Amino acid sequence: MSARYLALRLAQVVFVAFGVTVATFGLLHLVPGNPARTLLGVHATAGEVAYLSREWGLTKPLPVQYADYVGRLLHGDLGTSVYYQAPVAGLIGHALPVTLSMLALGAAFGIAASVPLALLAATRPGRPADHVIRAVPMAGLGMPPFWVGFILLIVFALGLHLLPAGGYGSTPAGHLESLILPGLTVAAVTTPILVRSLRLALIEVLGSEFVAAATARGLSRARVLLRHALRSTAVPAVSVLAVNLGYLLGGTVVIENVFGLPGVGNLLLTGILNRDFDVVQSVTLVYALLVVLINLGADLAYAALDPRVVLGR
Amino acid sequence: MRNRTTASAAAAALLVSGLAAGCGGGTGGAAAAAGGTPVRGGNLVIDIATPQQDFDVNTTSDNESIWTLDQVAQTLYANGPDGKSLRPELATGYTLSPDKLTWTFRLRHGVRFSSGATMTSKDVVFSLDQALNPKSIWNFIDAPISSVTAAGPYAVVITTRTPWAPLLADLALFANAIFPDNFGGESRAQFFQHPVGTGPFEIASWTRGQSLKLVRNPYYWQPGKPYLDSVSYDAVSDANTRVVQLQGGQAQIIETAPFARLASLKAAGFQLGLFPSTRIDYVTMNELDKPLRDPRVRLAISEALDTKQIMQAVFFGYGQAADSPFMPTVSYYAPVGLHTGNLALARKDLAASSYPHGGFSIDFIAGSGDPVQTAVAQIVQAELKPLDITVNIRQMDPAQVTVEEQSFHFGMRETYWTMDIIDPDEYVSFVLDGTAGAYANWTHFDDPVIDRLTRQAEATFDPATRQAIYTQIQQRAAADAPIVWLGYSPYDYVYASSVHGFRVYPEGNAHLEDVWLSR
Q1: B53–A41: do the CB atoms touch at under 8 Å?
Q2: How does pLDDT run across A35-54, given as a tens digit for each residue?
């Protein structure tokens, strides 16, 4: 990987960020609804709404408002939530770790489930185990995340009393405990695709010459599978996982809602409902940056996993 | 929209007149009434539907913030559990001058803020001056007040511009809560991050959008209270998740459980708290829409709608059809009778109107995703068909509904009102008074007689006279039908069997100092 490549990819991040600011700002201001009216409630007179709108700069021309917004962003100021009367950076600072932890745990669960299942299926192609492993996770893919979430809550929290029924706990251990079921919900979405892509790649690799050569050199089956075959298949799997995690970021709104998790998804939802412009713009920007960074991370992982991959060429 | 209102108080003034002699108020009783000996200690977890937004009493209007603030800060007078009475809280009584313009309040001795400082008249004068701030969205409540001055460390004199019967009820509004003088040396913004008051609890921690924890105020003035060590509010927006958390034991109280699940939760051993509320749902009619300008047309519409069926359908059997423009939980309510669900009568009134055969259409605006507004719009559409009135439902973003309403770009809409104070004055001023700023809830209805009666009630202190005035207002409103009053619904809470003494007052606040947890 060259430094030039990294610089180019980071420059892309800036372009994406710029595009996202234009799109979210434009779309938000196209949608009807005045945050001043929302905040002031029904008792406020038109004069009071107009006064607050002026105070917040909502009466300025849109290009001027956009320039103000970008100017603030460049100074690291994400604005102030009109709903919570608090700096947006602080709100995101509290909410983002929740969402990222949930996604990370979901990815870990997804990988932990996919690797053994794919290995089992790929080493027994066409046999009953293979059919079951291909079919069952697909059922998970067909189920909406909110439904999966509720089933998990009913079984593990209400039925078996093993885990908390939603919420986020109040200690680090409590946080982790509370994230297990949301993480499993995330995994339910990612695992089917991961299993299928890993299985296909493994079948292909297991039929390749280098695997035959390794086996001929007397290496154990386990070593051939885990050390050689699996590593080769990791590259496409990382790509699939990255794409899915990016997709799942948009789905965090639903999963966080089901589990009562105070993450950025919930923050975004409240922001949209209350025309909290700064919150919506900033959370969208953070989402976009995360998607770009996750994909950049995947690219970097390719190079680490496969020495043949040289980024930037 | 959560229309929040207050109501007043001449009646209130009279209901508490016995206290004017200085007898102490005191809450209490609720825990004892709940059965068993209260146990001290424990953390109560309440799942709320939306997080607290802002505690600045000049700017906040969301119920969660207001109801939380009620645990932290107190007022000179407080609403009683029936929604119609008042009791002294930080005051012990008052005297009213013969010209009914000067109210002298005696303050309770030995009251301390959670900071440890003693409450005196300086704090009261400072706090009420803050409430009178022209920038406060609630200052219209205190508009009749011309001055607030101290008369010694434990007496405060409030002067009104005109005789103002609702004053005691107005003073019970959360926006008139008492805080330390000069915010204890902090800036306004700093102070309202963690407001300090004389209430049973103080704020220990607050993560915006997530959770808030209250702990016992060690200096609380009511001996032995609160029973709880702490109260945790968790914001859980999904109603089904709140139910799961209750079932899983993570929360002891949940608010706004789905009505459809109440029966099964009760069967599972949970307590149902269907507390009478001051909520009244209604459909407004914009009189700038030509057909709706005709009172006969409005009356026909009102008569054609089966409000009993609507309330049953929308609130899953927990709603009750209105029989008055007022709610039974509000002072001076009179069941004047509303002739709804009578198609024959509706046809007769329409025949006598300027549109004898119908043949016109009305735009009904409804917030997309709002189950009540959407359901009501659909039922209204179906029930007005026999009158040959076409109802076009325009669904839009909830925030846009308010914009369309206040620009008068609509024909009908469904909304509701809840009270903040016990006197009906604010409700009548907002919903029926055509001379007030809200154009009679954005209907452009204006009945000069109702306007005059409203002013008269504000200056009348005799409860019997006020009852007569408000009964007349209710009768005229029912006859002119500027609004279709649909009905009443309770606050619904579900809570664990270990929770005792929990009660929600009609205005929506609960006195958590009375609540205790059995082990």
Answers
A1: no
A2: 676 666 655 667 777 777 77
